Amino acid sequence: MPEVNMRHARTEEQRRLYERIQGDRVCSFCVDFCQGKSPTYHPNPVIKETEHWAFTESFPKYEGAEKHFLIVSKFFDEERHVLFPNLPPEAWQDLGVLIEWAIEEYRLPAGGFFFRFGDTDFTGASISHFHAQLIFGGGKEGEALRVKLGYKAK
Q1: CA distance 32 to 38
Q2: Is this model's pTM higher than 0.70 or not?
Q3: Which of 4, 23, 95, 152 could disulfide-pair with 18, CB 3.0 to 4.6 Å?
Q4: CATH code of residue 16
């Protein structure tokens, strides 16, 4: 499974970044969020870190989102990413604390939280490294905010 799925790039700027990542033959999330230094590929800084997660603004935000954050797993080893459901219980607890912090910090009256796992050709994700999304659309009426969570069965 590739680290970056070009098919799921949402903007031209994101596509160019993914081409750079592919050319460098790295997992950008491992480089940017698991090594304790400022991001090299992701254009936004880490806002908050815990032992198990890095919290940052998404790039790019989903169209129509007022707030869109990534919560990136810091679990990996030299051989492979540590994937769902193989995270230890304390990582899940830490994730809950981080989400509560974000809701309070950004005064989110509502929102959506999700993660995808497995092959990005099935999920619609663009980066295979395990991460979650926290999104607040910002509106009460009008057009719905749409998020790709996979593809319909044929």
Answers
A1: 7
A2: yes
A3: 4
A4: 3.30.428.10
